[in-house]
Amino acid sequence: MYLSKEVKESIFEKHGQSKTDTGSAEGQIALFSYRINHLTQHLKENPKDFNTKKALVRLVGKRRAMLNYLTKTDILRYRAIVKELGLRR
Fold this sequence. Notes:
The chain is mainly α. The chain has 4 helices and no strands.
């Protein structure tokens, strides 16, 4: 399985306040980004997998909504997570 418990804990530890803090916006955005990157690689190998494509679009929308929330509440946290994950080029 590509997303084990240890991988999730390391993502939340690096981007959230602690490894058990799964509710922070930064941690969720980082987890969404990890999953989006994985699904993107899968779709490059399997371009006709339409269910995965739909799931990818849904995840991108969730991440966008979370980023919009972060811009409205705290712009400095938004800028930090975007820079850390390299979302904007």
